[in-house]
Design brief:
By secondary structure, this protein is mainly alpha-helical. It has 4 helices and 2 strands; from the N terminus they run αββααα. It folds into 2 domains: 65 residues; 59 residues, Beta-Lactamase (2-Layer Sandwich), CATH 3.30.450. β1 and β2 form a beta hairpin.
Length: 144
Amino acid sequence: MTDQDKTKDQLIQELQGLRSRVADLESLNLEALSSEEQLTAASQCLITSDQELIANNQALQREQFFRGLLEAAPDAIVIVDQDGRIVLANARAARVFGYARSEMLGQPIEMLIPKRYRGKYRKKRQCYKSGPHLRPQGSDLSHL
């Protein structure tokens, strides 16, 4: 049967069938695009995760290196945060001050200062906090 022999109704039905197939194909194409987009997003997520793992590993290596230097130092080293609480102390500091490291961490630095000087030291530390500047430790002992 040629197109000329088909009735108008048959042509309309055929056209509707073709439109339906086109819609199905478009839907499949969108699903394929959606799947491709999902794969792309998953790949980006994996790449980001890998980059974060690498960055975390590098940060861990730097921290281990720093801690190694800290422990190798012949001097007692105590590091405090901006509130004057001990956040890090090497083994030498624990021996010099007679505390276990775990006892020192989180405590105010004043715990290492003789009791009779703690009040003045605390005021000096707070003054320094309001206007920090480079100075050698122990260079100004006038507060003691």
